[in-house]
Amino acid sequence: MHEASVVANIVDAVLEELKKYDVTKVNAVTIVVGDLTQLGIEQMEFAYEVLSQGTVLEGSKLLVEPEHIVLGCDKCGYEGPAKMIDFGEDGYGHDIPVLSCPKCGGPVKVLEGEACRVKNMDIETRDD
Ligand SMILES: [Zn+2]
Question: Where does Zn(2+) bind (predicted)?
């Protein structure tokens, strides 16, 4: 399960960051996950619940904010969402983004949609 290793990295990073504070309780950790990562949010929440056990994060919530895909084209100046191809014929498929310009077909840069980062931590410290 790909999600588990990603969440393990996030949990490690958050625990490392939390060492800087005198944390008494963690309420929630908010992460931003781009659509291009193809990570399943439910799987991530589940992995977080498992991996946070026995740490200061136990009992806190993982809040996932999606980041939608934004492409930028140098050729025609297009900036916006990708064209999606639906592979879901059997009802279980995913929509796959096309990483070329929907307007002129040229090469594009991915401006948004690849994120997988911690955005915010809702913590309580001893000073509160
Ligand atoms: Zn273009």
Answer: 73, 76, 101, 104
